[in-house]
Amino acid sequence: QVQLVESGGGLVQAGGSLRLSCAASGRTFTTWTMGWFRQAPGKGREFVAAIDWSGSSTYYADSVKGRFTISRDNAKNTVYLQMNSLKPEDTAVYYCAVDDDGSSWYAPDRDYYYGMDYWGKGTLVTVSS
Predict the structure, then answer these.
(1) More exposed terminus of the chain, fewer Cβ within 10 Å: N or C?
(2) What are phi and psi of 81, to 5 degrees?
(3) Residue 47's closest CA among 57, 30, 34?
């Protein structure tokens, strides 16, 4: 059973920074592609960022490029999302997700990363103006 636990959310002023963490447990973490998604009130789920098992390939939604950075520490079974220059429109519940069977893929035409198998319960990020 795969478990994902997000942390690091909170209230921050526009222009500020937060770092989210996602601790994974259950199976071999090092072979997983990991990702972050978010869902704002009244909106659908949106892709934010993803990172392959080695950390050498990363993907970002257009809306966060240049402001957010995804990274991972396989020794700690943890993936991070460093969020800088936060905007009120970044307010959302942020979810961590994993692909544990290698079936996920990035669709640049849809700006979305498909095929994640497990999801965390989310952490709320609120950016005030």
Answers:
(1) N
(2) -135, 105
(3) 34
